[in-house]
Amino acid sequence: DASSKAKIQTIHGHARFTSDPEPTVEVHGKKYTAPHILIATGGQPSMLTEAEVPGASLGITSDGFFELETLPKRSVVVGAGYIAVEMAGILSTLGSKTSLIIRQNGVLRNFDSFISINCTQGLQTSGVDLWKNSQVKSVCKTDKGLEVTIVTRDPEKNNDEEKIRTIQEVDCLLWAIGRQPNTFGLNIRQMAVDTDEKGHIVVDEFQNTSRAGIYAVGDVCGKALLTPEEAVNSRGKENVKIYKTSFTPMYHAITSRKSQCIMKLVCVDKEEKVGVTSSQGCKRSDFFF
Ligand SMILES: Cc1cc2nc3c(=O)[nH]c(=O)nc-3n(C[C@H](O)[C@H](O)[C@H](O)COP(=O)(O)OP(=O)(O)OC[C@H]3O[C@@H](n4cnc5c(N)ncnc54)[C@H](O)[C@@H]3O)c2cc1C
């Protein structure tokens, strides 16, 4: 196959670092070492415990979503990140009556606010039943499916009473409440590889960890996205220029559900470069914007 042609040896099994003086990895009791070791172990979906939400384990995560063999008639998706939004959108578009439960007022809140606001509106106009300021309190199983009990309270409304409501006959409850890096069981702490408070491996711009010869890349590092706020922080307000547009594409001119197309270009420096690093090399003039 392609990897053996490229002289790549594949070793199947769970890898973890050993306590040898030189960085060493062990798989099924056999040790491997190299001058350069790259960690690319990705992440996994976070789950709530039964103590946090009784019945939580009756739900699935994005891994279980890909194992579904039939379309659930009634779905409840919990979370406000891109996986929750994407999966609620897929289920709803395929014809599942879908509710999306979010803790605050909008989805994708750690994305650019332009995307967050428009996506929150877009979801509602596309037929997803959005429950804002809401959290799942408990889940139980009945003959007709799951009963998902939800508590809603708007913190911005003074003295807003908690409302407790139940969604019945749910065929699919999907938790999409975040992901955690696969650093547990790797033994990286004892390797002096620094992690942040969520367990992500800390790297510099060249993917070096705090230990020479060990590098990390991908989701295990959990690097933030470039937003205008970050561009302003790193480049200075005077060096950042933002172009925005939003319109209803011609395709939707005669449809009843008007889907918006929104675009925002974050440019830095005099040349109006677009992208995170100068090596990406695009300028605003390269776009029809
Ligand atoms: C539902 C979903 C939808 C997504 N949609 C998109 C999208 O549309 N576009 C996009 O760009 N990105 C998308 N992503 C993100 C994308 O999948 C990840 O950013 C990408 O897969 C990260 O790659 P990675 O190599 O860092 O980790 P992964 O792809 O997670 O790979 C890590 C691998 O390491 C293995 N592993 C872990 N620990 C060990 C160990 N100790 N020993 C040996 N092996 C180990 C794991 O089993 C896994 O095979 C999506 C993610 C999810 C969950």
UniProtKB/TrEMBL annotation:
PANTHER family on file: GLUTATHIONE REDUCTASE
Gene3D superfamilies linked to this entry: 3.30.390.30, FAD/NAD(P)-binding domain
Organism of origin: Mola mola (Ocean sunfish)
Pfam families per UniProt: Pyr_redox_2
Domain FAD/NAD(P)-binding, residue spans: 8-232
Keyword Flavoprotein among UniProt keywords: yes
Known cofactor(s): FAD
Entries under InterPro entries matching the protein: FAD/NAD-bd_sf (IPR036188), FAD/NAD-binding_dom (IPR023753), FAD/NAD-linked_Rdtase_dimer_sf (IPR016156), GSHR/TRXR-like (IPR046952)
Keyword entries, A-Z: Disulfide bond, FAD, Flavoprotein, Oxidoreductase, Redox-active center
Alphabetized GO MF terms: flavin adenine dinucleotide binding; glutathione-disulfide reductase (NADPH) activity
Protein name, entry field: FAD/NAD(P)-binding domain-containing protein
BP terms from Gene Ontology: cell redox homeostasis; cellular response to oxidative stress; glutathione metabolic process
Keyword Protease attributed: no
Span of the signal peptide: none
Cellular component terms per the entry's GO annotation: cytosol; mitochondrion
